[in-house]
Write a structure and sequence with these properties.
Domain HTH marR-type: 6-142
Strand order of the largest sheet: 1-2
Helix content: over 70%
Distance between the termini: 33 Å
GO molecular function: DNA-binding transcription factor activity
Number of helices: 6
Oligomer: single chain
GO biological process, one term: response to stress
Number of strands: 2
Largest sheet: 2 strands, antiparallel
Strand content: 5-15%
CATH class of the largest domain: Mainly Alpha
Protein name: MarR family transcriptional regulator
CATH topology of the largest domain: Arc Repressor Mutant, subunit A
Shape: globular
Amino acid sequence: MTDDGRLDMIHRLRALTVQLDLLGAEFAQKHALHPTDLRALIGLLDRERAGEIATPGWLAEHLRLNTASVTALVDRLERAGHVRRDRDSHDRRRVILRVTPAAEKLGWDFFGPLFARASAALESFSEPQLEVVREFLGSMTDAVESARSSEDTEG
């Protein structure tokens, strides 16, 4: 691929990211959420979908916030009925964060049409093509995460 081709791909990713950000901002505004609150909910949902436990410490690291900020964020989300704090059955000192079914429903009601459109768009691709797309998106996600990490260490 030429440099122009690579640049075109990056611009297309940026355009997609902007559109997703705008849609997320619309959802956040409609439901009186701060953008960080929405990122927290998405992170918690992704963590749960992966079968992993989310704790306040994990959320602080994920969002790059201090523990006091995460406590305030979780308090807001809990008051709004979007998350709940559960005690770990194996270690009662540990708190597990979970998105409530009501919050999941809000998300599906709003983002459901997008998922339907995206699923329909994927229908035109073969399974081998989709595997290439999965690999590409994983590589791009890793590149962005790596850039974020290097910014932390470079000051």
